[in-house]
UniProtKB/TrEMBL annotation:
The chain crosses the membrane at residues 38-57, 77-99, 106-122, 128-152, 164-185, 191-210, 273-294, 314-335, 342-365, 377-398, 418-441, 447-465. It comes from the Eukaryota. GO terms for cellular component: plasma membrane. The lineage of its organism: Eukaryota, Metazoa, Ecdysozoa, Arthropoda, Crustacea. GO terms for molecular function: transmembrane transporter activity. Gene3D superfamilies: MFS general substrate transporter like domains. Keywords: Cell membrane, Membrane, Sugar transport, Transmembrane, Transmembrane helix, Transport. This is Major facilitator superfamily (MFS) profile domain-containing protein. It is a multi-pass membrane protein.
Length: 478
């Protein structure tokens, strides 16, 4: 009997076997729906944490290798740092198709095993070409994880908590970067790589308990499993019938129950309303990355050295990592209380102002041929910390929240893959050009350029971006 013809609870009693309850810790009766969704988001967020370690590892490893007289050229340093994002340019669109075909649980299990192997490669060798191959593979892993960390929270969460859940994924990525900076204080790169490999093992156990999103199950035509997933995510005391009917109606309306990824891709580009939403999403990610956050992430230690700070650059990196992670928790309290556009434009204004102050300071100070005093050396730390705080509170989590709220649910995996490819292009441009632009116009000039881009982003958000909180800005009425 179809679940839609009976009450949700009676359907579950017939279809939900005891082994499923044992295999899913979210089915414990005393856990509220909010925490059920948080638990699942955190488990999938382990993939985002792994992406954070991939991105932040060059910040500590390259400087440690340089201190150990292991010299790499500027081009080699740039490619080691930026290769994962360059690979993601090609692989992100493919990753969306893979996640849509295999599902989240199987994808996370496979790529986590592969990632463990790459960390062992990095730990065992200092040959540049071996390191580069490992970073290429890590780029493939990051591509899949980036799709999962954005799509899964948006599909398993209820509307009133969607921004918080996507913020949790962003926080996990920042936590990965923070732990990398912290580990870089006491561990050499090879030991740090071994540590990352060891941490991946318990993650594989956690992935066993994941439930696929109800919307993905509906798209795959697995109607019996939809009820099981919803009961796990919402709890026994929640009437899931309205949500069950809503999910099925969306899938039936778009006639994509058994559609292939190529057909979903055609649908995304065929309808102008979807194409407009996709274009706005691309522009959001463009201005997000033109703030220079990726350069700050992968060149943190080097950046403080170039800025002439008198403080230990490794400790400065830890401060930056904390300033990047902790505000994500604050964003959870703000993201559902204030309009998305207000938070995003405000945080972009703060990042632009802090980078402008830092850029002008470095420009003037470098031209004065004077040494930084003990207090003036704090200026780079303060300005970059303010930048990082503003990014963590608003720009990072809110940008991805708006993107997922703009994208139609039935093409979300494919659309997110395309957006991640664009996102990777933007990050690759920032990562690859930073060292060479510094040579050309100086580190102060680079920060001034990033500040101008941030202010352009404010203008875009205020004038072009629709408000998405609790709304569906691009509803298909055809």
């Amino acid at each position: 009997m179809s679940p839609t013809r009976t009450s949700a609870n009676s359907t579950v009693k017939r279809q939900l076997p005891s082994k499923t309850i044992r295999s899913c810790f979210c089915c414990w009766p005393k856990i509220s729906p909010f925490f059920r969704q948080v638990i699942m988001t955190i488990v999938t967020g382990m993939g985002a944490l792994a992406v954070g370690t991939i991105y932040a590892f060059p910040a500590v490893a390259l400087t440690r290798w340089e201190d150990a007289d292991l010299k790499f050229s500027t081009a080699q340093i740039t490619w080691f740092a930026s290769t994962p994002m360059v690979v993601s340019v090609v692989m992100s669109a493919v990753a969306g198709v893979v996640v849509e075909r295999l599902g989240v649980r199987l994808c996370l299990t496979i790529i986590t095993c592969v990632l463990c192997f790459t960390w062992v490669m990095i730990a065992q060798s200092t040959d540049f070409w071996v390191l580069l191959v490992a970073r290429v593979i890590q780029g493939v892993v990051a591509s899949v994880n980036l799709v999962v960390m954005v799509v899964y929270p948006a599909e398993v969460s209820q509307v009133q908590w969607r921004g918080i859940m996507i913020g949790v994924s962003e926080a996990m990525l920042m936590l990965g970067a923070f732990l990398t900076y912290l580990g870089g204080l006491i561990l050499l790169p090879n030991l740090l790589a071994y540590t990352f490999a060891a941490v991946l093992v318990p993650q594989l156990i956690l992935f066993f308990f994941l439930r696929e999103s109800p919307q993905w199950l509906a798209r795959r035509g697995r109607e019996d499993d939809i009820v099981e997933s919803l009961m796990c995510l919402r709890g026994n005391g929640v009437d899931i019938k309205p949500e069950l009917e809503h999910i099925k109606s969306i899938v039936c309306t778009e006639n994509v129950q058994n559609s292939k990824s190529a057909e979903q891709l055609t649908l995304l580009f065929r309808k102008p309303v979807y194409l407009r939403a996709l274009t706005l999403c691309v522009l959001i990610l463009l201005f997000k990355e033109l703030t220079g956050q990726y350069a700050v992430l992968i060149y943190t230690v080097k950046m403080f050295q170039m800025a002439g700070s008198t403080l230990d650059p490794y400790w400065c990196a830890v401060v930056m990592g904390a300033a990047r992670f902790l505000p994500c928790c604050l964003s959870w309290m703000l993201i559902e209380r204030f309009p998305r556009r207000l938070l995003l434009s405000t945080c972009m204004t703060v990042t632009g102002a802090s980078l402008a102050i830092l850029g002008i300071f470095l420009w003037v100070w470098s031209g004065s041929n004077k040494d930084l005093g003990p207090y003036m050396g704090l200026v780079p730390v303060v300005c970059l910390s303010i930048f990082t705080l503003a990014y963590g509170i608003g720009i990072g989590p809110i940008s991805w929240t708006i993107v997922e709220e703009l994208l139609p649910s039935h093409v979300r995996n494919i659309g997110t893959g395309i957006l991640n490819a664009c996102f990777s292009i933007f990050q690759s441009i920032v990562g690859l050009t930073f060292p060479f632009i510094v040579i050309g116009i100086g580190v102060g000039g680079v920060f001034i350029a990033y500040s101008l881009c941030s202010l352009c982003g404010v203008i875009f958000v205020v004038t072009c971006l629709p408000e998405t909180q609790g709304q569906t800005p691009f509803r298909d009425t055809n």
